[in-house]
């Protein structure tokens, strides 16, 4: 973002004292009147020691400025993701009218592991890019129907915005996005993304349409995702799962995925014209 336009930095707020920067906060604009909040980096949080009185005061002031800016710009959703050791910051976010929308687990697993299958359920993949955008959106809508993942967010973010957000994360990722077939029928989606800086792949989204759930296809689909990562020479696969999605968590842990962090999603919600 350092080479971005000045427009991208209008949500940057700084506190200075005696000519020195004491703290800063940034509201990064995203497509469709959305934004991401970047909190101050403080030594106390980096050392997992909480906030000093001064850091607490400065963060409160910066949050007020950021919230006022978000409200003025009529941003629909401004979010920040926190890990579990930031209780002091969570308290400040709640004081600033943010809401906790989701509780998540980040998991890491090995691409060499496979789930045992009671019977063979061979799946085939077709690049999602082969489909028209309306077909892609229809498939993602079907996969999201009655899903246990991110229920609160699905009431706020449309499928179009979800897909746009995935593209924003990694414009090259669609090379590894697929529609999933079983016996020549579309049954779900598999969205993967290489993360070269981490020497990992990310499982962005894996889902089945309602009529194909609880038939063992989820096990086969996870094995397919792990196989693709293994064929690419990547050892680790990471993903994020909603804490409320117990069937998915059970599946991932049966495949050897281990929790790396717990996260909580906070957000300001507004109404854009």
Keywords, separated by commas or semicolons:
single chain, 273 residues, 11 strands, 11-stranded mixed β-sheet, alpha+beta, elongated
Low-confidence region ranges: none
Return the string of H and E elements. Answer: EEEHHEHEEHHHEEEHEHE
- Morphology call: elongated
- In helices, the fraction of residues equals 25-40%
- Determine the strand fraction and express it as a percent band: 25-35%
Strands, total number: 11
Q: Regarding quaternary structure, how should these chains be classified?
A: single chain
Distance between the termini: 27 Å
The overall average pLDDT, rounded, is: 88
Radius of gyration: 21 Å
What class would the helix/strand composition place it in? alpha+beta
What is the tally of helical segments?
A: 8
Could you walk me through the main structural features you see in this protein, from its secondary elements to its overall organization?
Strand 7 (177-182) and strand 8 (185-195) form a beta hairpin. 28% of the residues are buried. The protein has helices at 43-46, 53-72, 87-95, 133-144, 151-154, 159-169, 217-231, 246-254; strands spanning 12-17, 20-30, 34-38, 77-83, 99-110, 124-127, 177-182, 185-195, 200-208, 236-242, 258-269. The longest helix has 20 residues, at 53-72. By secondary structure, the protein is α+β, with helices and mostly antiparallel strands. The model has no long low-confidence stretch (mean pLDDT 88). It is elongated. The protein is 31% helix and 33% strand. An eleven-stranded mixed β-sheet has the order 1-2-3-4-11-5-10-9-8-7-6, with helices on both faces. The protein is built from eight helices and eleven strands.
């Amino acid at each position: 973002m350092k080479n971005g336009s000045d427009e991208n930095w209008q949500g940057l707020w700084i506190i200075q004292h005696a000519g020195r920067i004491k703290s800063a906060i940034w509201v990064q604009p995203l497509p469709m009147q959305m934004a991401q909040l970047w909190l101050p980096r403080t030594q106390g949080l980096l050392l997992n020691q909480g906030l000093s009185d001064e850091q607490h005061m400065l963060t409160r002031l910066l949050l007020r400025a950021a919230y006022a800016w978000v409200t003025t710009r009529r941003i629909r959703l401004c979010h920040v993701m926190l890990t579990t050791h930031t209780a002091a910051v969570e308290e400040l976010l709640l004081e600033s009218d943010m809401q906790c929308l989701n509780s998540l687990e980040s998991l890491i697993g090995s691409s060499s592991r496979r789930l045992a299958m009671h019977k063979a359920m061979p799946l085939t993949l077709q690049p999602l890019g082969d489909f028209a955008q309306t077909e892609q959106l229809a498939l993602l809508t079907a996969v999201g129907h009655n899903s246990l993942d991110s229920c609160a967010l699905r009431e706020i973010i449309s499928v179009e915005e979800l897909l746009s957000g995935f593209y924003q994360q990694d414009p090259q990722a669609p090379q590894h996005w697929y529609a999933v077939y079983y016996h020549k029928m579309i049954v779900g989606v598999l969205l993967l993304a290489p993360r070269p800086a981490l020497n990992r792949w990310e499982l962005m989204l894996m889902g089945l349409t309602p009529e194909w759930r609880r038939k063992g296809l989820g096990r086969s689909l996870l094995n397919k995702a792990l196989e693709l990562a293994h064929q690419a020479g990547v050892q680790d696969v990471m993903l994020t799962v909603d804490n409320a999605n117990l069937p998915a968590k059970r599946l991932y842990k049966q495949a050897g995925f281990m929790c790396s962090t717990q996260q909580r999603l906070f957000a300001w919600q507004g109404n854009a014209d």
